[in-house]
Design goal:
The complex is a heterodimer of chains A (289) and B (111). Chain A has 289 residues and is mainly α. Chain A has ten helices and no strands. The chains are: A mainly alpha (289), B mainly alpha (111).
């Protein structure tokens, strides 16, 4: 009940300022949604990493059937590239974690009692986030349209907020954060395509090997393990759906960021964008292990 | 949709996925013929390599090559689809698959 009242008061505070420029409550809501988004994507990319590696292992096992030792060795070497993708995804996870820290620091800046230390801290985080973003921007995972999305980052016109520290931060970083969110949006869309294909491999190869065959041949050695495996195969597609929502959430967060920075706050649009981001974060938390 | 995405989706969804679905049956049916198994497995590994190449590289003339050879590739994929339906002649299926992978490799090599 108490939390519901708090939500209503919060929503009321936002509604009262509907005609104004961006406010401190807007900043806090944006910061909290941004941090929740970063935490959820970090977890989600971890699951995508495992799915991709598992798919590669399922293919490796299946493609090795009937081959000589020498051919198997050559095949194993061909599959070594799976590690490259993991390296790429680890960079994206780092980017998501830095985004979480950035939005947490932005939330701290929005507090009245902000000190120089908080301002210095956000500078350091933003610098690292920018470097992590640059390390990702040339990735080969992206399609030309996704590369375009990142390179077309425009210039946001910053309007001051009633907090000097926050206004300074927006003036310094509006475009950078817009670009980092574009990177997230593009990468998560690319990752969804890749994981969708990998899941198809797991579904057909893994399910046949671990579920169908032992069941048909009556050779299930450990029934409890078989039940768990079957469950994991059936539930796996949920992570692809979550990835699709993640790219959409990044796009909503970006549009909320632009509206906030430019002080063109359409109350209901901002709230609806941020609600979508939070709802993505909550459902990802519920779906992921 | 870019030519790269189009070919990538085709190879992943219309070639690799259905073959993986029937890989166990095909391998069982080819059991005992080491050369045929080797050929089939090599085609699968080559297809993985082509998909990986498409995931990682840009090809300047891929659209042109896809326009020029797409019909042949699609006809091959159609044959593969029908030969995978209730697989009767595994050797034909393996041969058609091998031909489709070869066509895709040619398109990518020319692009």
């Amino acid at each position: 009940m108490a939390s519901r009242v708090a939500v209503l008061i919060g929503a009321g505070a936002l509604s009262l300022s509907a005609a104004c420029a961006s406010t401190i409550p807007h900043a806090k809501k944006l910061a909290s949604a941004g941090a929740a988004y970063g935490r959820a994507t970090d977890k989600l990319i971890g699951v995508a990493e495992e799915t991709s590696l598992d798919a590669d292992s399922a293919r490796l096992l299946s493609e090795a059937q009937g081959l000589s030792r020498e051919d198997r060795r050559a095949l194993l070497e061909k599959h070594a590239a799976a590690a490259d993708l993991v390296g790429e995804l680890e960079k994206l996870r780092k980017h998501s974690r830095l985004l979480t820290r950035y939005f947490e620091a932005l939330g701290a800046l929005a507090d009245d009692t902000v000190d120089t230390e908080a301002a210095n801290q956000i500078n350091g985080i933003a610098g690292s986030l920018n470097s992590a973003g640059q390390a990702l921007s040339g990735s080969k995972l992206l399609s030309p349209a996704e590369t375009d999305l990142i390179s077309k980052a425009g210039r946001l016109t910053v309007r001051a907020v009633r907090s000097a520290a926050l206004s300074r931060e927006l003036a310094a970083r509006a475009d950078t954060i817009d670009r980092e969110l574009r990177i997230q949006q593009a990468f998560l869309a690319a990752l969804r395509r890749k994981v969708q294909a990998d899941l198809a491999s797991i579904a057909s190869l893994g399910r046949e090997r671990d579920i169908t065959r032992p069941f048909l041949e009556g050779s299930i050695a450990d029934q409890r393990a078989w039940i768990e495996l079957r469950r994991s195969y059936v539930l796996a597609p949920r992570s692809v759906e979550a990835l699709s929502d993640a790219s959409e959430a990044a796009s909503k967060l970006r549009s909320a960021w632009a509206a906030f920075v430019e002080g063109r706050v359409d109350e209901s649009a901002l709230l609806s964008d941020l609600e979508a981001v939070i709802s993505f974060a909550e459902s990802a938390k519920a779906v992921l292990p | 949709m870019s030519a790269r995405t189009e070919l990538l989706d085709t190879l992943r969804d219309k070639v690799r996925a259905p073959v993986e679905e029937h890989a166990g049956e095909i391998l069982d049916a080819l059991a005992g013929d080491k050369e045929k198994i080797r050929g089939f497995q090599k085609a699968r590994a080559d297809l993985d390599a082509l998909i990986e190449k498409l995931e990682e590289e840009e090809f300047r003339t891929l659209r042109k090559e896809l326009d020029a050879h797409g019909a042949e590739l699609n006809a091959g994929i159609k044959s593969l689809e029908s030969s995978l339906e209730g697989i009767k002649d595994v050797e034909t299926t393996a041969r058609v698959f091998w031909r489709v992978v070869g066509l895709a490799a040619r398109i990518i090599a020319l692009a």
